[in-house]
Amino acid sequence: MKVLVTAGPTREALDPVRYLTNRSSGKMGYALAQAFAEAGHETLLVSGPTELDVPSGVDLLPVESALEMFDAVRRHLFRMEAAVFCAAVADYRPAKASAQKMKKGDDSITLEFVKNPDILGSARKEFGFQGTLVGFAAETQNLETYARAKLLRKGCDLIIGNDVSKAGIGFDSDRNELLLVYPDHSESLPEDEKHHLAPRLVREIERLEATRKQS
Ligand code: PMT
Question: InterPro entries under this entry (predicted)?
Answer without folding.
Answer: CoaB-like_sf, DNA/pantothenate-metab_flavo_C
